[in-house]
């Protein structure tokens, strides 16, 4: 690894700080608190939630996907998180940490919650996450800017999907 001069080191630290501030200061796009269960502050579920959310960042598969489970029976906590593919690891960790804090603020004592940021999403629940084919909790966003070439804009996603299907 090459030695960095003081200015290069300062520049890299500045860039990382700006990226971290972008997520830390950003507001979430959407959140949802599950309404099928609460936990109490000193409960086993709360302890399992604390363990699961604190160990989640260490479960990265190398592709920005995280999952962790702790506990048994009705005190089981399952969690999953995903960072956008172009997000750097430091920004991903910052987004996940911020997600944990915000979910505890907006969904206190809820056994399940999900939050979406531009860079990541995080979910925890006492229900199964992986392998569950139930749908829901999606977020739709739109851009109010005009598209200069609407025909090309509408054609491009379909063409990409056709190439993906053909290649698989």
State the main characteristics.
single chain; 168 residues; alpha+beta; Killer Toxin P4, Chain A; 40% helix; 16% strand; elongated; GNK2_sf; Gnk2-homologous domain-containing protein; GNK2
**Structural class computed from helices and strand pairing:** alpha+beta
Helix content: 40-55%
Order of helices and strands: HEHEEHEEH
- Mean pLDDT metric: 80
Helix count equals: 4
Number of strand segments: 5
The major β-sheet equals:
5 strands, antiparallel
Q: What's the CATH class, please?
A: Alpha Beta
Count up the domains: 1
Strand order of the largest sheet: 1-4-5-3-2
Radius of gyration: 19 Å
Inertia-based shape = elongated
Q: Find the CATH superfamily.
A: Gnk2 domain, C-X8-C-X2-C motif
Estimated share of beta-strand residues: 15-25%
Which runs of at least 5 residues are low in confidence (pLDDT < 50)?
Answer: 17-25
Separation, N- and C-terminal Cα atoms: 39 Å
CATH fold-type name: Killer Toxin P4, Chain A
**CATH-level-2 architecture:** 2-Layer Sandwich
Description of the structure:
The protein is an alpha+beta fold. The chain has one domain: Killer Toxin P4, Chain A, CATH 3.30.430.20. Helices cover 40% and strands 16% of the residues.
Q: TL;DR?
A:
The chain has 168 residues and is α+β, with helices and mostly antiparallel strands. Helix content is 40%, strand content 16%. Helix 1 runs parallel beside helix 3 (89-106).
How are the secondary structure elements laid out?
Blueprint: H1 6-25, E1 30-33, H2 44-55, E2 65-70, E3 77-83, H3 89-106, E4 113-116, E5 120-125, H4 150-167
Antiparallel strand pairs: 1-4, 2-3, 3-5, 4-5
Helix pairs in contact: 1-3
Pfam families: Stress-antifung
Domain Gnk2-homologous: 27-129
Organism: Deinandra increscens subsp. villosa
